[in-house]
Write a structure and sequence with these properties.
This protein is an alpha/beta fold. The protein has two domains: 140 residues, Nucleotidyltransferase, domain 5, CATH 3.30.420; 166 residues, ATPase, nucleotide binding domain (Nucleotidyltransferase, domain 5, 2-Layer Sandwich). The protein is built from ten helices and ten strands. The strands form two sheets. A five-stranded mixed beta sheet has the order 3-2-1-4-5, sandwiched between helices. It has a five-stranded mixed beta sheet with strand order 8-7-6-9-10, sandwiched between helices. Strand 2 and strand 3 form a beta hairpin. The longest helix has 27 residues. It is globular and about 65 Å long. It starts with a strand and ends with a helix. The model has no long low-confidence stretch (mean pLDDT 96). Bound molecules: 5'-O-[(R)-(carboxyoxy)(hydroxy)phosphoryl]adenosine and zinc ion. This is tRNA N6-adenosine threonylcarbamoyltransferase. It catalyses: L-threonylcarbamoyladenylate + adenosine(37) in tRNA = N(6)-L-threonylcarbamoyladenosine(37) in tRNA + AMP + H(+). InterPro entries: ATPase_NBD, Gcp-like_dom, KAE1/TsaD, TsaD. It is found in: Cytoplasm.
């Protein structure tokens, strides 16, 4: 079974080819460089750049395998959520290919795709407990099959990645801030500043706006007093508070849902501390299938959409 999958929901245009569960190609055109000067993704620019890139991405994704477009059995694409202009371009490409080769079209959910990112190269078992951490989401999902996703807790205000990016901007680190704070945190003392652990309650929901305000106030106060801002200590203290809550909520969810697989998904799954927490929890609770995604599967990519499509087709047969 051969699947061609398209992911275009934000500032990456990516196409992946999967054959019988194996990823044969995963070509990603990233636009981060073009958005840096604007301090974030500019939706219209993202859509325009997708138009410029889609043709070479399709060509390279197919040519790096021995598969011809006519041999594809299913065409999958990210239907939602995402930037509307970016999504439309992915949909148009998917529809055109599917009509041309007369094969079924599969509109899929971006976050469900992310969840399969770490499962691409691994055997796993349901139920899967997935921590989703990205620029737009902080949520915990229990996945009982490729057609059964339950969100047990979600973002109430700023998502974790958004919070990293906003704090980084105030620290003068530029966009995207997440990786920069993560790197700086290595050199800092995470007990230097006593920050509130966000939404430290019994629910599985997440709220990062209080932590964001607390850290931004600390930076402004230091600047006002003319004191030097110890950016490494700030980064380390922020990272500690931002990720500690993930550990707490996941630990509770593991006890309640007894997952057979534990995973993490989304852009912030590249974070050093988040990865450490997942692997440590997996060991502590003896969850043999504990996986963090390869770096190329942390950011948006077609392979995760191809894998989701494959698992859905398998579970429907
Ligand atoms: O999933 P993603 O690529 O896009 C969305 O769908 O939102 O996630 C992007 C987010 C950005 O906020 C970026 O700063 C964050 O992931 N990020 C990180 C790290 N790498 C990327 N945040 C913290 N630590 C990292 N190492
Ligand atoms: Zn994403």
């Amino acid at each position: 079974m051969k699947i061609l999958a398209i992911e275009s929901s934000c500032d990456e245009f990516s196409i992946s080819i999967l054959e019988d569960g194996k990823i044969l190609s995963n070509v990603i055109s990233s636009q981060i460089e073009q958005h840096v000067d604007f301090g974030g993704v500019v939706p219209e620019l993202a859509a325009r750049l997708h138009l410029e890139n889609l043709s070479w991405v399709i060509k390279v994704a197919l040519e790096s395998t021995s598969i011809k477009i006519e041999e594809i059995d299913y065409v999958a694409y990210t239907e939602k959520p995402g930037l509307i202009g970016s999504l439309i371009i992915g949909k148009l490409v998917a529809e055109t290919i599917s009509q041309y080769i007369q094969k079924p079209l599969m509109p899929l959910h971006h976050i469900e795709g992310h969840i399969y990112g770490a499962l691409i190269d691994n055997e796993f078992a349901y139920p899967v407990l997935a921590m989703v951490v990205s620029g737009g989401h902080t949520q915990i999902e229990v996945v009982r099959s490729a057609n059964d996703f339950e969100v047990i807790g979600s973002t109430l205000d700023d998502a974790i990645g958004e919070c990293y990016d906003k704090v980084a901007r105030v620290m003068g680190l530029g966009y995207p801030g997440g990786p920069k704070i993560d790197k700086l945190a290595k050199e800092g003392n995470h007990f230097a500043f006593n920050l509130p652990i966000p939404k430290n309650d019994e629910s599985y929901d997440f709220s990062y706006s209080g932590l964001k305000t607390a850290i931004i106030n600390i930076i402004h106060n230091l600047k006002q007093k003319g004191e030097q801002v110890p950016i490494a200590d700030i980064a380390a203290s922020f990272q500690y508070a931002a990720t500690k809550i993930i550990e707490k909520k996941l630990e509770k969810a593991i006890k309640q849902y007894n997952p057979r697989t534990l995973t993490v998904a989304g852009g912030v799954s590249a974070n050093r501390e988040v990865r450490r927490i997942i692997l440590e929890l997996g060991e502590k609770f003896n969850i043999d299938n504990t996986f963090v995604p390869k770096m190329e599967y942390c950011t948006d990519n077609g392979a995760m959409i191809a894998k989701l499509a494959y698992e859905k087709i398998k579970s429907n047969n």
